[in-house]
Write a structure and sequence with these properties.
The complex is a heterodimer of chains A (241) and B (774). Chain A folds into two domains: 5-93 and 215-230, Sandwich (Immunoglobulin-like); 98-202 and 233-239, Immunoglobulin-like (Sandwich), CATH 2.60.40. Helices cover 5% and strands 46% of the residues of chain A. Chain A contains one helix and 19 strands. The longest helix of chain A is centred in the C-terminal third of the chain and has 13 residues, at 191-203. Chain B has two domains: 25-99, Immunoglobulin-like; 190-773, Maltoporin, Chain A (Beta Barrel), CATH 2.40.170.20. Chain B contains four helices and 50 strands. In chain B, the strands form eleven sheets. Chain B has a 22-stranded antiparallel beta barrel. In chain B, strands 8-15-16-11-12 form a five-stranded mixed β-sheet. A four-stranded antiparallel β-sheet of chain B has the order 3-2-5-6, with no helix packed on it. Chain B starts with a helix and ends with a strand. Classes of the chains: A mainly beta (241), B mainly beta (774). Chains A and B meet through β3, β15, α1 and β18 of A and β43, β44 and β48 of B. β3 of chain A pairs antiparallel with β43 of chain B, so a sheet runs across the interface.
Amino acid sequence: MPPKYVIEGTITDSVGTAQVLISQTKDFYSNNNFIGITGAIVTVTDDSGVVTTFVATDSGVYQSATLVGQQNHSYTLNVNIAGQLFSAVSTMPVKVPFDSLFITTDASFGSSKKVANVQYKDPLGKGNSYRFVEYINGIEQQTIYAGNDDYTDGNKVTIELNNFGADDTTTYNKKIVSGDSVKVDMQCIDKSVYEYWYSLDQSATGSSQSAAPGNPVTNMQGGALGYFSANTLQTKSVVAP
Amino acid sequence: MKITKLILCVLFITICMAVKAQEKFTISGTVTAQKTGETLIGASIKILNTNFGTTSNEYGFFSITLPQGTYTVEITSVGLAPTIKNVTLDKNVKLEILLSEALAQMSEVTITSVPKGRSITSPQMGVEKLTMGEIKSIPALFGERDILKAIQLLPGIKSAGDGSSGFYVRGGAADQNLILLDEAPVYNASHLLGFFSTFNPDAVKDVTVYKGGMPAEYGGRLSSVVDVKMNDGNNQDYKVSGGVGIISAKLNVEGPIQKGKSSFLISGRRTYADVFLKLSKDSTINKDQLYFYDFNAKMNYELGKNDKLFLSGYFGRDQLGFGNTFGLNWGNTTATLRWNHIFNDKLFSNTSLIYSDYDDKITINSGAINANIFSQIQDWNLKQDLQLYLNNKNSIRFGFNSIYHTMRPGDVTSAATSSVNSSSLQNRYSWENAVYVSNTWQASEKINVTYGARMTAFSILGKGDFYNIDSTGKVTDTLHYTAGQFVKTYFNLEPRLAISYVFNSSTSIKASYVRNVQNLHLISNSTAALPTDKWIASTNIIKPEISDQVALGYYKNLADNKYELTLETYYKTMQNQIDYRDGANVYTNDPIETQLLFGKGRAYGVEMLFKKKVGKVTGWVSYTLSKSERKIDGINNNQWYNATQDRTHDIAIVLMYKRNEKWSFSANWVYYTGDAVTYPSGKYIISGQPVFYYTGRNQNRFPDYNRLDLSATCQLKKHKHYSSELNFSLYNAYGRANAYSIDFQQSTTNPDETEAVKTSLFKMVPSISYNFKF
């Protein structure tokens, strides 16, 4: 299978977080050591034409120390890998305040476990999308939590970040126990990025029960996998009681 | 002289014709089982020493017109003693036939006289029937005998997999089967997420499955009709029967209201596994719920010699709940009121008024989501069917069927403090009308033809908003319609043709062509059929599905009707098939059409059934070789791909052995090629985790499925007024871990590797049940 390029681009409203990761697909039975692609030319242009060039800091990692995204502005990512051109557009939405993060105990499905909960107030007017990234003891958890306000428009929203596959055997699908430090990033994302995370979760995480396993819907043009997300970023941490 | 000769000739001919015209009379009547008063469907009425004969209809009524004369009429029905009547036909004769049970000394399956061969002359092909006796002998999961699982042992009818009560007929999807219970459509014929079906075999009289050659009186789904008829209720004696198994208990009570004239039947079944859940001290378990129940009731009343009224109903529900956090409740309700009227010896009428409802409700109380999501489909249906037995060569059937559908795709109700808003997707209204006519004509001694057509009009009605959508799935226009306003009507003509050619008394070939149209479509999020899957009607964008099927068959009765061989081959094309866009969200608030893609399908195959009908050992071998494909723009690079239903080989071997009066055994072995699935071609990393890359659709296969089930029944007591039996069964006797799902993930023992993880549902599952009858 000829490899395809994978581009994960993120810019946020905080300085020092703008990053583009470039790698390739591998055959199914290869190991999970994904090598980064070097030598790519990576730029992000804002909607007034200002171009920021990203600098390679590691194999496959390109960063900008200065680029900060502004709410309600759109950004275009351009990547040139050995002459092949890829681009994507994302608009940074308004920042919805991350009100609180707390731990509760969920006692369903036959076992009692601790879950992280996030709370925010969705602004009135449909079109707000969110993604939450959970870290337990510093390790990013694999469950994808992405949602929009289709059913919750204008309300105070509390979401349980419930990882149904959590157990004690891995650090990346971990059951929360007393003393664990739990950190959650709240990202306000645009519609195309929400559709990416939703379709990735539904159809590309390996389940054969999905009606339509397939590649996620993406804003990346030119034939590469991955996405480009201009999102706001807020973080909260708590220690599990 | 010449003119006189001419006049005399004409007069002679006219008198001859007049005399001939006066010479035909009709024998008609009803065939009933003497012991129970149940009318018999498909009983054979044969005029010995002639080529004439007929069968009783769904209400036991028959009619045959013959020239004046004396005849010997033989009436037979499976499992009952035949009877002979001598008739002097010099006027219309009414025969009320009562068939008594086969003699007690004869075991049910050893028949010393030559058994009746199945009919090979009728043009009807593509039909499968199982007797309730056969269904009750087949081993079953948890000891629950199941009609829908039993028919999957026949050629052309395939299981959708372990844990699913959906089935695929001749390459069609699970929603392309019209399942009728006493004429009422059943929208979700499954309990407990597909492990069992909603039919309680104790209340069922007859099951007939049409996979092809569907008669004109049926319509609305592309691939099959499963016509389930309930018992009427014993109008001679009160009878109580029931049983207790390892997961459920059931009770059946029936009897006369007025002996010989009217009767009732009440039947109920409930699982009780949840009783044990409540006993648990673990508070995370004792609030969990897991149960289903079924309740069938029927009453019939003879208003007079020519009129009979039937009222039947079904009510069933499933409840699945985890503590207070999550609940899923769903079920069907059906009710049918029917009036049989015999106009005269040749004209039989049935008028039905039917109500059918399927709804499901999801309750979520997690975090700050306190909400219920409710969806429902509700039908009101009026049907009029007339059967005109015109003469001994022509029987005409005609009528109409009108259904009004109301669909509530999703009502969200939430508490004021809930994160979730209350909202309602718009209701959808539609009106499905059909008229049909067909004639079964005995063209010659060797050729019989059924020709006819069904004309359907499917009207989409307001009140509602309908949309225009561009090729990327974006809404470009919203059209508003008021209550009762016609949005669009789809007209379709469905020809139904079948012909049979009889070589000799034991061999025939048949051919058929049918067109079927389907206007209700099941939208599902996954390959596992879930109770929350939504039924939607055709819209201005979603067109009616259409299928055309041609089939050819060869039928032979062997060794004095001890064996039957059936070979059928078919080719079916399907239009306007539905699939989903990449990343489709079927729960979206956006119009559902924005998530769908449309295309076509084709399916073809060869089916073989070899059946042994007499002896201590009976049973059958069924084999199907087939293919089912789809071609949908936007999927698999717009190329043909294997449908989920594609299954190359499908084999079933069923054996029933009646050792003696006390013990009988049965076994079935099934083998089929694994489902077509999409496996990843590669992987890559996103947000630090490996995710999978796909090229194409359904280019891989699950491993082959095979399973052996065994069962033994021991008759404990058998008195005149009481009998009981004990049944033991072992499902998946050699414990093969058949794949229910295969998921890909990072290995937990070695995160540097990706592994495929197979999940199986059932390995060896033993069960025991006790059944009694008074």
